[in-house]
UniProtKB/TrEMBL annotation:
Compartments, as annotated in UniProt: Cell membrane
Ranges annotated as spanning the membrane: 12-35, 79-99, 111-130, 136-156, 195-219, 239-263
PANTHER family given in the database record: OLIGOPEPTIDE TRANSPORT SYSTEM PERMEASE PROTEIN APPC, PEPTIDE ABC TRANSPORTER PERMEASE PROTEIN
Keyword Iron: no
Organism expressing this protein natively: Microbacterium soli
CDD domains: TM_PBP2 (cd06261)
Keywords: Cell membrane, Membrane, Transmembrane, Transmembrane helix, Transport
Location of the ABC transmembrane type-1 domain: 75-264
Protein name: ABC transporter permease subunit
Membrane topology: Multi-pass membrane protein
Signal peptide range in chain numbering: none
Length: 289
């Protein structure tokens, strides 16, 4: 039996589009681990700048590499950065939100000030600063974006935790002997999940953009790692001569970010019971006296 939230998610166009895009990217990344039409790292100078045709369905770049193979291999990088950043952001966000909502007053205020300070630093700037010290790599992007958006999620979810903490079922849980951590896992986190899901999907979308931007600037993926941002940087110099080649990596980034954003909005509508009640009220018959 399909869960209700999943039926609601798939019944909307935005949710269906988001699920389809994310599933396609993940499937492409998994397939690229086992097979790509050509080796994405091998150049063929005699076949450079080939137009889209068989066997190069999307053409080749200036060194003769197959663009479709590069996009498929770049999907692995995109999935790795998006999932890795989401994991880091979840850990950081929940930890800071819990410390800022469920602890003593002096610690709550200290965490709130710390979050306000950290949120003032742009994520890309943090990643570039770390890259300048430790060198550019995908791990730098994952931790920089994860920490940056973990702070943002903490700022948004902290008031929600404070609100839910005053609910009767949380008070009853404390009276029943549940510890703060047990109450957090059983009652608080499930009730702030809709807000957290939207923030998490947004962080994954921006992680894709951040990875592409940092790789474009040379602070992200290395030369031995396929990346949509690196491919875009290589091809944009020849946009006046071969404009079609630039379209493919740019389109991949755009569609992926759009899919993640729409999926987050659809998940919020599907999992937030208050939105469901509001939607039901819109369809209730109204009697006008």
């Amino acid at each position: 039996m399909m869960p209700r939230w999943l039926r609601t998610l798939l019944s909307t166009r935005t949710g269906l589009f988001g699920v389809a895009v994310v599933a396609l990217i993940v499937l492409t990344a998994l397939v690229s681990l086992l097979w790509t039409p050509f080796d994405p790292m091998i150049s063929d100078v005699r076949g450079r700048w080939a137009a889209p045709s068989w066997p190069h369905l999307l053409g080749t770049d200036g060194t003769g590499r197959d663009i479709l193979s590069l996009l498929m291999a770049g999907a692995r990088t995109t999935v790795f950065v998006a999932v890795g950043s989401a994991v880091v952001a979840t850990v950081v966000g929940i930890a800071l939100a819990a410390l800022g909502a469920l602890t003593a007053r002096w610690l709550r205020e200290t965490v709130a000030v710390l979050v306000d300070i950290l949120i003032a630093f742009p994520v890309l700037l943090i990643a570039m600063m770390i890259s300048a010290v430790w060198g550019g790599s995908l791990w730098v992007v994952v931790f920089a974006v994860g920490i940056g958006f973990g702070v943002s999620m903490a700022r948004v979810t902290r008031p929600e935790l404070r609100r839910v903490q005053q609910s009767d079922f949380v008070v009853a849980g404390r009276a029943a002997g549940l510890s703060t951590g047990q109450n957090l896992l059983r009652h608080l986190l499930p009730n702030i999940a809709p807000v957290f899901i939207v923030q998490l999907s947004w962080s994954m979308a921006v992680a894709v953009l951040a990875e592409a931007g940092l790789s474009y600037l040379g602070f992200g993926a290395t030369l031995t790692e396929a990346s949509w941002g690196t491919l875009l940087a290589d091809l944009q110099r020849y946009i006046g001569v071969h404009p079609l080649t630039v379209v493919w990596p740019g389109l991949a980034i755009t569609v992926t970010v759009l899919g993640l954003n729409l999926l987050g909005d659809a998940l919020r509508e599907a999992t937030d019971p208050t939105l469901s009640r509001d939607a039901d009220r819109l369809h209730e018959p109204v009697v006008i006296a």
